[in-house]
Amino acid sequence: MQKTILLASSTLVMSLYVACQTKPNEDAIIFPSQNPITEYKIDKSTPIWADEFDYTGAPDSKKWGYDIGGHGWGNQEKQYYTKDLKNARVEDGKLIIEAIKEKYENNDYTSARLVSKGKGDFLYGRIEIKAKLPKGRGTWPAAWMLATEQSYGASYWPDNGEIDIIEHVGFDQNRIHGNIHTKAFNHSIGTNKGNNIMAESDVSDNFHVYACEWLPDKITIELDGKPYFTFNRPSNDWKEWPFDKKFHILLNIAIGGGWGGQKGIDDSIFPQRMEVDYVRVYPAVK
């Protein structure tokens, strides 16, 4: 009996030794959130960051930068993004992002993509955008969020996440989409998480309030105060929930592309504009 116990003990020690020497499978590692889930609520008393566009000229350089270029942006888009006033300006209390049909460095259209990266970066809160969208086949306006830094995975996208507060394609007027993208959940592998809603009045003739409430345990997207998509945190695995790091805001009109151009581009519609009355960010507090 004693010999049997000794043999079993030796086998156990050897098994533990081998296990300790085995390199872990890095793909299986789950990185816990840096922000333990706690009860949060949105404080709508005062924004922590906002642009009311109560000035004239170029967008406020203390709040907005630009993405510049015309290489398709990973979506086969047809526009060149510039920082010219003709494509992005503030007038009559509104931010105007305007898409124009014109040749520019091998592209057939110009537009603008504003980014708050490094000037407005947030962890949790409520993001509100009051906007009127462009109209016509081939337009693809958006208001969305990306991670400010690459904290997870080998690729910036989709590993570090994306939150789409507004997506609209001109061939499907008045239908608004809200989506999230992560390494585990994204359209490129057919696992996208999102929903859509039909607006009660025309989104190109009227201003609507588009909002996202982002908390440590869920993301909810709304149209005019009506929630229509909620993504509950499924786990602490960064592949499913990378939304525990700072994100920033993007505003743009794309032309054509893998989604916006599915039914072609109607060149008779240009120029087209997105008008933004305000962007406000409210904090999430414990």
Automatic annotation (TrEMBL):
PROSITE patterns: GH16_2. Residues 38-286 form the GH16 domain. InterPro entries: Beta-glucanase-like (IPR000757), ConA-like_dom_sf (IPR013320), Glycosyl_Hydrlase_16 (IPR050546). The keyword Hydrolase applies. One of its GO terms (molecular function) is hydrolase activity. Keywords: Hydrolase. Belongs to the glycosyl hydrolase 16 family. This is Glycoside hydrolase family 16. It comes from Emticicia oligotrophica (strain DSM 17448 / CIP 109782 / MTCC 6937 / GPTSA100-15).
